[in-house]
Amino acid sequence: MKQDFKRNLRILLIGIGLGFLLAILAYSIFPDLAKNTKNNLICSEWTGFCKDTTRSESEEKTINNQGQEILRKKTTTTQFQSGKTLWDWLQLFGSLAIPVILAILGYQLQQTDQERSKKQAALEREIASANLRDEALENYFDRMSELLLDKKLRKSPKNDPVRNIAITRTLTILRRLENDTERKTMVIRFLEAAEIIDIIDEKFSGINLSEINLSGARLNRANLSGINLSHASLDQIDLRGATLKKINLTYTKLNEAILDSTDLSEADLSGAILKKTSFTYANLRGAILDSADLSEANLISAILNSASLDAANLNGTNLNGADLSGANLDTANLSGANLSGANLKEASLNGANLSGANLDTANLNGANLSGANLSQTQALNPKQIKSACYWEEAVYSSPKWDEKMFQWDTEDTKANQNRIEALKQDKVSDPEKPVNCK
Prior knowledge:
two-stranded antiparallel ribbon, single chain, mainly alpha
């Protein structure tokens, strides 16, 4: 109401201001236009805008006894009309502006009433829809409670009619609550508390659970394959042994989560926040982790072959014994990472930052080191380096990141070149067979 009043008052003041402005402009312009009264349309006699003089003559005659007319009196009358004054113009334009302003206010009030009516109708529809969703959710809880208490759902085997009914009801309620994140969260929390999260199986693939909040939930051994959990909050969730094939976890928060021995093959974790998350023995084969934050995560013995970690943050990450063969690690940040015993065969490390990383016994056979930052790496010997491809194009000393070219460069070209020449001169470290860099 206050906003509507302010808006209407603003329109009224603008209208009044325009009226005065027009009056002043007319007063300042019209007198100059009125100088040529003979040819100027504005100062034509019929307009009455400019100065004017009107003369009229009258004669008074009488007739004598002989029937002759005798002129007794002749009268000449001169009338002067002055030009319009400022106050005349203000009165004129004020009279014209009032109906215009009233029309504008009337239209604005009509629009305001329509908007208010639409908002009220939308609010009533939302309330009615919320009531229906509450009713549906309460009915779901009642029916599932009956299956739990009377039909022993928790102990029912796979493909049992009771379990199939529970699956159907859960699928139905989740689809009905498509855009209702809060109530969908309540459904999953109910399944967790009732210890029947295992009813979620491959039939749930494609279900939208984006933006759901399941932080701290225990969903170990659940099958969430193909489910959309993008932008969800899953910090400290327990998904040990769970099956998450082709799951959508883009931009999801999974800080300090437990995903040990979890199957995340072909999962999409682009932009996900995975700080200090545990992936020990996890299967991430073919997964997409582009721009994901895996800083200080535990990926001991994880399977990441053919995974994409383009521009991922792996600062301080433990990749001891991890399989990264064929993985894409272009421009990834692996500074301070533990890559001891890791398999980086044919992995792409183009522009990657490996400064301070531990590469003890790491397999770099056929890996692409073009533009990689290898300064201050630990336990990296010449034989490992020369088993890789394009190692001559790597940066070994005084690295600096070129934002414009989006690549690593060296501030000490001479020292860097000397290091490369020293590697070339070390024939003992040459590989027994030529490295295939196609």
